[in-house]
Amino acid sequence: MILVTGGAGFIGSNFILAWLRDHDEPVINLDKLTYAGNLENLVAVCEDPRYRFVLGGIGDSELVARLLEATKPRAVVNFAAESHVDRSIRGPANFIQTNISDTFNLIEGVRKHWESLPEQARLDFRFLHVSTDEVFGSLSDAAPAFTETHPYQPNSPYSASKASSDHLVRAYHHTYGLPTLTTHCSNNYGPYHFPEKLIPLMIVNALQGRPLPIYGDGKQVRDWLYVRDHCSAIMTVLSRGKPGETYNIGGNCERTNHEIVVEICALLDQERPKPDGRPYAEQIIYVTDRAGHDRRYAIDATKIRRELGWVPETSFDRGLSETVRWYLEHPEWVSRVQSGAYREWINLHYQKLERQ
Ligand code: NAD
Ligand code: DAU
């Protein structure tokens, strides 16, 4: 079996659903259920005998040790993290705790467990760490996309905390020989995306008649990948990646934030026209820029394509329209998310931004 951490979050839950669709092998989900963890994402598999949920944190060394000893997974896939840049700017401490200290605790627990395994099991074992392209910092408009050897230049408390955990993973391979794999993916979008991030926030706000707040001039560029393609890339790296290596994952799909929001509005105009016939784009407003806002991310995914044969399958047009439709078809998911801690966060964050 494999152990997934943070499997109740956006990407982790998509990964578990895809894993159980494609594999017979059982999966255990260790998740602390922070505001971002939502077990509703996994209702389709909660009765599946191949799936087991364990409530707990990767920072709990006793739990991690007990779980590894009892279940003896052949791999650990680590999604558990604090993941939202704006939250890291307002409150970095949680990011340092989870993404550095707790992640260290997990890696250390995995190392001790791995060292106790018989030789063949040690050779076969994998620790896959899900990192981000944000550790590489920001690109100018004309600069080539990030390759795996791009220098680390994290600019936010979030990306700095992810960079720290990447360094630990690297050191555990170099020093102890732990068979690690690290992936750096660009911005994901798709079903179950928590509506604090750009794409789901804009869909949900548009439908609820709220403003669509674009930071700064809206010309920042992100490289978008449909979440199911990210999951297939992780499965590819897990099965064919070389221990100690890092792999960039991206969709070769750069868009400005303004383009993204306009495209969402156009899809909603088609799928759910407003009763008064007015365009959703009228709800767009420009607000104070994010502090330290990275201008551009772009991923060069040549290595994973050439060495492991992975390519994304979903075009941005198809992925975005499926995503918009998913949110239209799941209003109850949205309203349950919004009735929780999400609403408190939205109030705290946006009331402090000035309209420009
Ligand atoms: P998310 O915030 O939606 O989910 C994080 C999950 O981790 C939640 O279920 C949460 O409950 C859990 N968690 C948090 N702290 C924990 C702890 N101490 N122990 C156990 N579980 C804990 O995040 P996401 O968007 O699904 O991202 C998953 C991973 O992928 C993160 O490591 C993130 O850095 C990385 N990543 C995300 C993107 C993206 O666009 N979302 C892109 C590239 C990489
Ligand atoms: O690049 C990978 C990263 O992508 C992941 O590591 C992070 O976990 C994930 O959250 C994401 O980070 P971003 O900061 O790029 O994503 P976010 O959705 O927060 O913002 C995308 C862009 O949209 C960014 O330039 C900021 C802008 N934005 C965001 C929000 C929430 C707005 O203009 N308005 C908004 O209200």
Structural summary, described in words:
- There is one protein chain.
- By secondary structure, the protein is of the alpha/beta class.
- The protein has one domain: NAD(P)-binding Rossmann-like Domain (Rossmann fold, 3-Layer(aba) Sandwich), CATH 3.40.50.
- Helix content is 45%, strand content 15%.
- It is built from twelve helices and twelve strands.
- It has a seven-stranded parallel beta sheet, with helices on both faces.
- Strand 5, helix 6 and strand 6 (180-185) form a beta-alpha-beta unit.
- The radius of gyration is 20 Å and the shape is globular.
- The mean pLDDT is 96.
- The site of 2'deoxy-thymidine-5'-diphospho-alpha-D-glucose has 19 residues, from helix 7 and strand 8.
What characteristics describe this protein?
12 helices, Rossmann fold, about 350 residues, binds 2'deoxy-thymidine-5'-diphospho-alpha-D-glucose, alpha/beta, about 15% strand, binds nicotinamide-adenine-dinucleotide, about 45% helix, three-stranded mixed sheet
Briefly summarize what is shown.
This protein is α/β, with parallel strands linked by helices. The protein has twelve helices and twelve strands.
